[in-house]
């Protein structure tokens, strides 16, 4: 049986005018700033006007560690949101925007799949409403102003060897990881070694996703440390006097984007920090606005629960005063078999023993999420090759962990395939069973926070960090940054820093290669293992097959 592709399904969508979608949430049309007919930004004035309303229930969707077999976290997020609406609930969805880097690299688009998608899919995966371009421009404006300040006399006495602010680009380009700028003579400035990160790794992106309003945005931008003097005293963005102009560039980008699912239910798509480099959640503005407008808000956190969910709880919820009522962990039978040692080419054949062998990866994530005091439901994202015995093996294992697993068929059936999950999630959320608390206290030392995550989430025996890194953390504590949470940057494919170690390994170490202070965003980035802040393209990038066909339509994007 031939199945339609995601893009074919998306093109057949019977989209409603965005004003009708806004009306479902009580957003007046004059507070929607339309970008065409099917997407719009929600005005800050309207957001301000609903702040005295009671919050709805927040539901987080996370997953096991990603595998080449596919998990479908965003697809499940969309399917659950549609399922809640289908059973008569007032629900909204909150997800991240897509980066051009993965789109043209390896991962492809990020708007769900099958009959559980957010549309317009093509625009969302390309330029959308220009938010990422605004972030890139604001970030690089600051870069230009730093170099310009040095060129015109360096009144702030910036040590050119200690300029920490790198440039960004919303594209995977390994050639830009390490660069030398200002070559070509005196008129071009002073040569120095620097480099590029991908836009989604920018501190500006993290700030936009954590800021509550424009005033908070400008304050945070001003707090960013961009360089140091010879005496090691910091230079802030506000010292360069760039924070005001950056805020102007980001004014429209701060307003969340409203779109719709295939079933014409509201979805906020806003912000997009990477989960293995940054905190991996959509914007606080979008989430908190949705909570004022809907009774149930379904959101997601990037990659597996060891990265996205941990940062959602320890960073986003801590900073925004949020508390999830229920967490859904997405898993697939195929991924369980792959964790159990089955090669990707052999995943179609029934192998109950491999499913059972791979389930400890799922079990580890269930335990970790429960440690935050939140009830957990497992969504088994159904594939047509799954057998009843394999599905039952997952359900039995999850039951042994004190949770329940529900088979979901949203990819093929839309909301009809998630009504059971939606009903159970709503029951749990309404029962107020959660007793949420972050994993560590603010007053724990920075290194103790790193150790807490490494030992309790990754199940590592130790954290390896040399004296230089430990001393840097101590200096930041002495400077008043010791109460910040830590943002762990490591591979998404394993609980360890080795992407090839699947399952639920123990007895490993977490090597810390570098630490970076994101003073404006309000966290310390801890880079572990070989993680890259500027990814490269694979041997055969997705861009090779993306084109416009004879009908003027995009092909190959997803």
Descriptive report:
- This protein has 558 residues and is an alpha/beta fold.
- Helices cover 36% and strands 19% of the residues.
- The chain has 20 helices and 25 strands.
- Strands 1, 2, 3, 4, 5, 6, 14, 15, 16, 17, 18 and 19 form a 12-stranded mixed β-sheet that branches. A 4-stranded mixed β-sheet has the order 20-22-23-21. Strands 7-12-13 form a 3-stranded antiparallel β-sheet.
- A hairpin with a 4-residue loop joins strand 22 and strand 23 (523-528).
- The longest helix has 21 residues, at 131-151.
- The two termini are 20 Å apart.
Topology summary:
Elements: H1 6-11, H2 18-24, E1 32-34, E2 40-42, H3 44-49, E3 57-63, H4 73-86, E4 91-95, H5 100-104, E5 112-113, E6 116-119, H6 121-124, H7 131-151, E7 158-163, E8 167-169, E9 179-181, E10 192-194, E11 196-198, H8 203-210, H9 214-223, E12 225-229, E13 234-236, H10 237-240, H11 243-250, E14 257-261, E15 266-269, H12 284-293, E16 296-300, H13 305-320, E17 326-331, H14 333-339, H15 352-370, E18 376-381, H16 388-400, E19 404-408, H17 410-413, H18 419-430, H19 446-456, E20 462-464, H20 467-481, E21 486-489, E22 509-518, E23 523-528, E24 547-548, E25 554-555
Parallel strand pairs: 3-16, 3-17, 4-15, 4-16, 8-11, 17-18, 18-19, 20-22, 21-23
Antiparallel strand pairs: 1-2, 2-14, 5-6, 6-14, 7-12, 9-10, 12-13, 14-15, 22-23, 24-25
Helix pairs in contact: 4-18, 7-8, 7-11, 9-11, 14-15, 15-16
